[in-house]
Amino acid sequence: MSDHPIGGAHAPLLEVDHVVVQFGGVTAVNEATFVADAGTVTGLIGPNGAGKTTCFNVISGLQKPTRGKVRFRGRNVTGAPVHRRSKRGMGRTFQRLEAFGSLSVRDNVRVAYDIHRGLAGLVRPGAKDIDALLDRVGISSYADERADSIPTGTARLLELARCLAGDPKLLLLDEPSSGLDESETDDFGDLLRDLAAEGRGILMVEHDMDLVMGVCDTIHVLDFGSIIASGTPGEIRRDPAVQRAYLGYSDEVPEHELVGASAGASAVEETRTDLVPVGAATEATTVIPAVGATIPEDVR
Amino acid sequence: MSSLISFTILGLFTGAAYAIAASGLVLTYTTTRVFNIAHGAFGMVMAFVFWDFSQRQGLNLFLSLFLVLGVIAPAIGWGIQRFVTKGLGEGPVSVALVVTVGLFVGLIGLAQQVWPPEPRTVPPFMASSGVQLGDTYITAHQIITIVISIGVALGLYVLLNRTRIGTAMRASVDNPELLKLFGGKPDTVAALSWAIGISLAALGGILLSSVIGLSYYDLTLLVINAYAAAMLGRLKSLPLTFVGAMGLGILQSFAVAYLPSDGFLAGTRAVVPALFLFVVIVLMPQAQLRIGQVKGIVSAPLPSITKSVAWGGALLVFVALLVGGGMSTANLLLVGTAATYAMVMLSLVLLTGYGGHVSLAQLTFAGVGALAYAKLEQPNLAGLFLAAAIAAGVGALVALPVLRLTGLYLALSTLAFGVLMDKMIFQAEFAFGFNGTLQAGRLSILGNAIESTGGYVLVMTLFLVLMGIALLLLRRGSLGRVLIAMRDSPAACGTLGLDMRWFRVGLFGLSAGMAGLAGALFAGLRGTIGAADFQFFNSLPLLLLAVVFGVTSVTGATLGGVGLMLLPVMQSNNPGIAGLIFAVLGFGAVALGRDPNGLANLMFGLGRRIQALVLPQLRDRLPVLPGRRPDGSDDGEDAGLADLLPETPDATGKVPAHV
Ligand SMILES: Nc1ncnc2c1ncn2[C@@H]1O[C@H](COP(=O)(O)OP(=O)(O)OP(=O)(O)O)[C@@H](O)[C@H]1O
Ligand SMILES: [Mg+2]
């Protein structure tokens, strides 16, 4: 699909360079430095509240970093507006869904395509086969439904299809598999490999360790805003600092993470009990995947 | 020299009163994310209550103060938060704005109903006392006000920094989720801040009422000063808000003292706060896109083009019958007025219904169109479109400086714009002139002037119908889809590569152009127009009626136009309840404002239901025509409903989505 190989041997597709983000007194991202290459799948993992989504916001331009730089395809884009980065070939999905709720699934992708074509797209509807894209991510059976009435997992795939309409060089996926059942997750993993094989770079935040370990070429681990480890899945598994950050996560993926991974929030929450960090501040917290809000255990 | 000092003191006094009111506004906004446009209206009503207690009923001054500031105002603030504004902060900005504009209009109506116009005065505190400072005499009221403002500042500082609930308030400013994590109760925090906020509005209103008088509008519009001050603190920082308020007070006082009292610059004296607000908004730093989907948007069904053309034709026939039936000229003028309002409301359908932006000065854009039209040598079609284009240009100019900002700030800058135009431009010599009017000729099409009022009204209706159809066509095309997408998720649009800034400017321009066209046609209808026809304040009932009848549909706009035309008619027929009508409208909008699809959508639903009940029976009785599907009437109501949902596929070959 992409007609020119990108990135090349010189510069990585994406470079995050000593990025710091502070919210009031809270340092959400602390000197984070990592890269993502074209043609590969890069994982960004870490406990809840580690700063993964904030990193994505900085990369895509929705959040101004307090310090640090973001380089994309060899150019410093730290100060560039959101839409300019998108035009340069960056696409993203959201942890908290951002589908166009009052449009149909097909129209969601059509809008993305129209926007991608610029002024021409606004005047004349595109001729491209939108349905082929829906088919590719596996949601064509939902094409005529309103986007706010489809299941979470499907909506995430819709966001991916929407990105793909713009033929991006880099895909930022924020927890794309939450809400998918086991076989859907498998298909999704294959799709990711396919997309990478086309020469795209994929940077993915994900809590499903099977998926991360299965598809990623490189993994960066974020804890309390800092990168504590980077490497191949095998290296990350063996890294003592990572094991410390993830209480209970060991060499073997725990049994119950593999079974019972049916669609829906409860399954994902279950998976995550293993990912609660040792850190005192977040000890008693868990996460509701669709919302991403941190709430105390007793409230739940 | 002494005059400098006395004007500074005067400025500090008004600034102190603004600061008190503005800090209440900041408190409510930061804790609940609801910007209370009606903040000043609350201050106004509370000043009236205070007058009622202390003057009419003759209660003790301190008792009255205590009752208003310590009991009534906090109770109202608490109630408003609990029952009206709760949860608005998470919804679309447009809904929160409409609901508080509803409160604004409703409170003014209420005050007029309860305290009908008559001269009233609130004496200043310790009226006979004061201090002589060199040549300058400072009244005790001024000193008291300044001291109270310092007290408020200290009180708020202690509350926010030294108490548990205050810490919770600050936490909820930064991060509501964090607040819950600390075991705070967001509802208590929100209710408390509204109680304090309304109380501060009341205090500001009472302190100023002895100086500027008990006036429904003047006191209410003081809120613009409060907005301006609060904006300097970016609606967050209380210290900066105080600085802004004091600076504004002094600026205003100096403008009165040192600007010439005649000529063009004289106009600026009245608009210092609006100018200040405009400048501060323009200087605001780039707003970040809102992440987190806006919830609760339901779109009204989109009729097929055939259906809309049919309805438009029916409307034209109806008006033609009215005209042919010998309707009086006075009533014809009313029909033309309704068509004008309907067209202005159509411009709101585009801007608010589809685009999710709020304009608080849509009638002002109509005024620009009317002004341009009245200045034409030849009122022909080209001139008409030129007038509309000028209004569109002005609309784009208003949106341009606030290119980088969104939602609330855009709406507030239209408010400042409306006030500026009202006080400075429309009344200037080169425009309508002070209390003046301009003559405008009837439109001529291809050399034929439409002299008869009936014919002119018919032409106006035609324009309304064409505008409605054009709007629906736009909504169905890719432009319309992008508009809806922008309303549903600006963040996603940005990451898909849409530069929303220029899009917004274009949207504002187009919408203002539509309103301008309506205004130009209106000028031709009336023949004589003046600034009074396009008063900024009337944009607010216009917005409310548009929302009540349904700002997402052409039908809603048409009905709303009729409603707005009837409003003054009802008021002049029943002068005794003129205020009540406003109150009903305002509070009605508060109740209905959460659903921008309004009454029109309810009607659509009802219409479908009736059709579903009636049509199957009709079909039974009719013979089966060739080509018509023989339809089982025993399908039940639901099947009938599904059958009757829009029949024609739209331009892109897809059946339009439904609610
Ligand atoms: N807009 C904001 N204002 C204040 N604090 C914020 C804001 N956004 C994020 N934070 C804080 O920054 C930290 C990192 O949040 P972030 O959402 O990036 O974490 P995450 O790694 O994506 O977590 P999760 O796995 O739960 O999605 C958290 O402590 C969060 O509370
Ligand atoms: Mg996240």
Automatic annotation (TrEMBL), chain A:
UniProt KW Transport keyword: yes
CDD domains recorded: ABC_Mj1267_LivG_branched (cd03219)
Gene Ontology molecular function: ATP binding
Domain of life: Bacteria
Residue ranges of every copy of the ABC transporter domain listed in the record: 14-249
Cross-referenced InterPro entries: AAA+_ATPase, ABC_AA/LPS_Transport, ABC_transporter-like_ATP-bd, BCA_ABC_TP_C, P-loop_NTPase
Swiss-Prot/TrEMBL keywords: ATP-binding, Nucleotide-binding, Transport
One Pfam family linked to the record: BCA_ABC_TP_C
Protein's name in the database: ABC transporter ATP-binding protein
From TrEMBL, chain B:
Keyword Transmembrane assigned: yes
Membrane topology: Multi-pass membrane protein
InterPro entries reported in the protein's UniProt record: ABC_transp_permease, BCAA_transport_permease, LivM-like
Cell compartment(s), UniProt: Cell membrane
Pfam family, one: BPD_transp_2
Keyword 4Fe-4S listed: no
Keywords on record: Amino-acid transport, Cell membrane, Membrane, Transmembrane, Transmembrane helix, Transport
Region annotation Disordered: where it falls in the sequence: 624-659
Transmembrane segments: 6-27, 34-53, 59-80, 92-116, 136-160, 189-208, 240-258, 264-284, 305-324, 330-351, 382-403, 410-434, 454-474, 505-523, 543-567, 574-593
Family from the record: Belongs to the binding-protein-dependent transport system permease family. LivHM subfamily.
Name of protein: ABC transporter permease
